[in-house]
Write a structure and sequence with these properties.
Blueprint lengths: L12 E4 L2 E4 L5 H10 L7 H13 L9 H5 L5 H19 L3
Antiparallel strand pairs: 1-2
């Protein structure tokens, strides 16, 4: 069954250290921005995660104005795992994998 493109998807919720962040839903424009930020280095997991978090957060949090600022909300390896899992879920849903 085809998706209704007029229904705007809801963003995912990221909870870290008592703070709650709403990540923007994935769309083609965000994917284009991600590709334009810099070449994705598959070996640099930290940089990739910060870039993706930045794109998903910047629409709702103007104070997060760079991948470095997005990375500042990650304060432990546990946080990194939670964020990676949520970002992965967003991409899986976008590409339609089940």
């Amino acid at each position: 069954m085809a998706k209704n493109l007029l229904i705007k998807p809801k963003g995912k919720i990221l909870k870290l250290n008592g703070a709650t962040y709403e990540l923007s839903p994935m769309n083609l424009a965000l994917l284009m921005e991600l590709e334009a930020l810099s070449p994705i280095d598959e070996d640099n997991v930290t940089l990739n995660l910060c870039q993706k978090l930045y794109l998903f957060l910047k629409g709702n949090y103007p104070e997060i104005d760079s991948p470095q600022k997005a990375g500042e909300i990650i304060t432990s390896m546990k946080d990194m795992g939670i964020a990676m899992e949520l970002v992965t879920e967003i991409f899986i849903e976008f590409y339609g994998a089940e």
